[in-house]
Amino acid sequence: MPRDHVTVGRVMAQIAMVMNLDKCIGCHTCSVTCKQTWTNRTGVEYAWFNNVETKPGVGYPRRYEDQEQWKGGWALDRRGRLVLRSGGRVRRLLSLFSNPDLPAIEDYYEPVTYDYDNLVSAPAGDDMPVARPRSVLTGRPTAITWGANWEDGLGGAPENAGGDPNLSGAWAEKVRFEFEQTFLFHLPRLCEHCLNPACVSACPSGAMYKRVEDGIVLVDQDRCRGWRMCVTACPYKKVYVNHATGKAEKCTFCFPRVEAGQPTVCSETCVGRLRYLGLLLYDADRVGEAAATEDDQDLLDAQRGVFLDPRDPAVRAAARASGIPEDWLDAARRSPVYDLVARHKVALPLHPEYRTLPMVWYVPPLSPVLDAVDAAGGDQDDPDHVFAAVTRLRIPLEYLAELFTAGDTGVVAGVLMKLTALRSYMRGRALGEEGGEAALAAAGLTAREAEDLHRLLAVAKYADRYVVPAAHKEDAAALTATEDRCPVESPGGPGPREVMLGIPALRRDTPAGGRP
User: Are residues 175 and 396 in contact, defined by beta-carbon separation less than 8 angstroms?
Assistant: First the structure.
């Protein structure tokens, strides 16, 4: 049935992000500014709410994508119901005081300081004084053997990158780490602020919650008791424990800035201008059904099916009935995130098979396809030649598919074809050459759509990249309330006690992200 004829259910709004990986140069400015804003204090020295990983690589914390080991995200039981990978009633109770599925500090890295005083207080002698590293945790001398940025630019890749969980298929044999044969790209990561957050459902104390107004996932520090179930349940391992306070902390999506209509710090300071922020409208009644889609490779389409067209009069009317302000509807209509995710469909989610329905999406990196066409003696304007080159790129399609489409290489190839056709067409226009429309048509683009997509991906201005509606003063009480925060605590849905005992947090009448 066409989406236009589907009855619109409960309309809700979500602040979301898209990152264009072709523009990321791995400068880590986003990580540094986030660190200075949110984790530059005692207890979270090892925590990076935003970090930039080099792929292929084992990531931060080490091998966080291996859910067989860490038990993050959701899975389907034998009856097709969503259950937390971290376990049900008995497992939760037995591991309440000793959770076995937690990364150790060695998987993150041991934060260090240095004996700087030794540089100025050492007695005169023949040897140059040095500032030896000391552990911030123990105060004892230590050796630096790992870090959040240890694999930057494939540093140490021959020894470590083979442990990347995405290199588990038979195709991985063609991945080589010799200088002439290797590939790399940068992957910025932060909390996904999922529509179906596993961390929220796993929290025994109800401290973790998803705001009804804008979908941002936060931690109530007063309620947090340090059970650390949220750390296990998050498949992206973006929840950290402050070792000084014993409380959980995570990326806040810079909610004070977002409430003021400003972009997040990582977006504001991004050198490559690769981040896009915008509002998405979605049907809360369809979230549970989408997350419970049986085939992992169908989860991408299922999640896109949850999003609503902000230009549809029926959607706008339903949104008004749900209490969404008029300026928010206008922001949703102008959202670059909706255009990249749902309209042009060039942005993809990170590991949709975790079934959390993540809300940070990525435009996959595109190798120099046109150079590959020329090298093979092909015609850049021939869609068949271009597609053949796409399947032989230096960055394997299979690797990108493991990251963004649960292994479906066809979807990734389609996105790369669209991006390649766009580049070829716009380059031809700039050089005054004719043609290029055939490649556009083969990729499913019109000339007008190509111009709109080029405006977003290549030359988007500040106001086009960040369309963030400010919070309303009349909603201030709701933004700070503790009673009305997330459907896992809503009437008809499981409360914190039920969640701890393993009762599924998703029901068809109260899906995650839904309004009470």
Answer: yes
